[in-house]
Write a structure and sequence with these properties.
Length: 333
């Protein structure tokens, strides 16, 4: 299996697919499932590589140097956009999550970044962080996050709604423990408090909703994290791991709607996934980048005010591969 990953060659040809909005921890997750199950890696890798779209020059050449104390940890930026082309400079990132994978591969830390966070966009001054895509495409979005934490991004991935919907259905649905009951403003869906079973369509409505909440995007981010918990539990369940048909269908459903950087082919994703083979849903910790709440920019925009002290602490945790210690000390995990 490991030898295959070393020898596997990525096809040169690429094609574009529509990309639109939310982000979930799917890239590593799906390859993890495939590798744990075993026996289907070659065909799954071919399916992944032939289906995904490569984003050329996604990672800036002048990225920050990795701190030696970070060891073998990796940072993966997951982005959802509101345009159909991930390379389009007309798009804004609707959802953004930074996944930190520690060097010991014991878990994964998933940090949501509020899309209206007011921060420095290299070359453009202070803007909402989701404006980076519109101003300079994926490379500038990556650069904005790197600048915020002064730490390099190792990989970037973008996901489309349709792949998200297809994956949910391929897994046979996802159960979530919904904390706040609400009616969707997008479709005729009601989500009561407690355990709710979601299919592809209702899952999209669940993670997209923000108008139904007094806290708007804050609650939407919490719901996205709730859904991720349910998705991970479903994907890494015994019923999935022992079902090669479900695994193959999941990879086939999601890969045409994923766009990734040039270094994240099936071999690279597979090697990372294999190193995470012991991670389960209970090992993944999710939190939101702390902020100082809502505010107004000097030009009158409604913004989310960043917490510079918290960002400095998280930057230190990324540099020292100590995210677990940071979350424990701040009671955020």
């Amino acid at each position: 299996m490991t030898q295959f990953l070393q020898d596997y060659e990525q096809p040169a040809a690429r094609r574009r697919h529509p990309v639109r909005t939310t982000a979930v921890v799917l890239l590593v997750l799906l390859l993890t499932v495939a590798l744990v199950a075993g026996g289907y890696l070659w065909s799954l890798a071919r399916s992944f590589d032939s289906g995904t779209t490569t984003i050329e020059n996604a990672l800036p050449a002048d990225s920050p140097l990795k701190d030696p104390r970070a060891g073998k940890s990796q940072n993966i930026l997951l982005i959802g956009t509101d345009e159909r082309d991930p390379g389009s400079e007309a798009s804004r990132s609707d959802t953004m999550m930074l996944v930190h994978i520690p060097g010991d591969r014991s878990t994964a830390y998933v940090m949501s970044i509020m899309r209206d966070t007011w921060t420095d966009i290299p070359g453009y001054g202070e803007q909402k962080i989701n404006a980076a895509m519109a101003l300079g495409g994926v490379p500038l979005a990556v650069d904005a996050v790197q600048t915020m934490f002064d730490a390099p991004i190792d990989h970037v991935a973008i996901i489309d709604f349709e792949g998200f919907k297809g994956l949910t259905d391929a897994l046979g649905g996802v159960d979530v423990n919904n904390p706040v009951p609400f009616s969707s403003s997008i479709a005729d869906d009601y989500f009561p408090a407690g355990v709710v079973s979601l299919d592809g369509d209702s899952a999209l409505n669940y993670v997209r909703e923000r108008h139904a909440f007094a806290e708007g995007d804050y609650q939407r981010v919490r719901n996205q994290q709730t859904f991720i918990s349910g998705l991970v539990s479903s994907a890494l369940s015994k019923e999935t791991l022992l079902n090669p048909v479900k695994i193959s269908r999941s990879v086939s459903e999601i890969s045409p709607y994923l766009s990734v950087d040039e270094g994240l082919n099936a071999a690279a994703a597979g090697q990372l996934a294999f190193s995470l083979r012991n991670v389960r849903g209970g090992n993944i910790e999710m939190f939101t980048l702390p902020t100082l709440g809502a505010g107004t920019s000097s030009d009158g925009q409604s913004i989310v005010v960043k917490d510079a002290a918290a960002i400095a602490d998280i930057a230190e945790a990324l540099d020292t591969d100590a995210m677990g210690e940071y979350l424990a000390a701040t009671n955020r995990g």
